[in-house]
Specification:
Blueprint: H1 12-25, E1 32-34, E2 44-47, E3 59-62, E4 67-73, E5 77-83, E6 88-94, H2 96-100, H3 103-115, E7 122-126, E8 136-137, H4 139-148, E9 156-157, H5 160-163, E10 188-190, H6 192-202, E11 210-212, H7 227-230, E12 237-242
Parallel strand pairs: 1-4, 2-3, 7-11
Antiparallel strand pairs: 3-6, 4-12, 5-6, 5-7, 8-10, 9-10
Bound molecules: zinc ion.
Length: 244
Amino acid sequence: MLNLGYVEWDERGHVDENRRRFVRALGGEEMKLAGVRQIHSSLVRIFRQAPRERLKGDALATRRRGLLVSVQTADCVPILLADTRKRVVAAIHAGWRGTAARVAQKTVGDLRVHFGARPEDVIAAIGPAIGGCCYEVGPDVAHEFSCQFAQAAEWFDGPFAPLSTGDEPTPFAWLQFDPPGHERPKKVRLDLAAANRWQLEAAGVPSDRIFACGLCTLCRMDWFFSYRGEGQRTGRLMSAIGVK
Ligand SMILES: [Zn+2]
């Protein structure tokens, strides 16, 4: 496994070498790798040329030849888009905050507005991310999703409804003592990839043009980096796409 992120425990020189190997494996030796400082937002950056400085954002789009737009992940959902007719590409980083902020849906919209891309010409790849099998989240996430999406319940496994109301638990523990066997549910599992697939479809990308790898980073720590699984000691996966 190649760590492709500049993390504390890895040397910069090693990461640079890993990135060179990665780009070579993609067949993009002549291409320039562009990334953003990811902040779990819905901020989409459009690159007309190679960026001179590292901008904040969570999605990058370009039609500039020779530029590889990339995102880094270790559990969050990486998504790559390509409009095969207009030859425009985008890379998206979608954790729960970015997903709730509709970063995938917004990126398809930006391809349409800035490049004249038609959503029906877009193909999408959803990469490895923490799956609905493993991604336990609390009431804050359930509430945020239930406010944002009418169909949110479809993406959760477990007691979504009681967690999604956003009612603050009372600070007086003795007031919320439930009888044994009726304790309040604390956790639900979220399928982030499903929520992002829905957004791509809502933006007009045909469902048969959306390809999801379906692999869970936490289940498959032998193949991938997982922040939930390894914490600060984990590395970063990279997903990149460009026009030669
Ligand atoms: Zn899993």
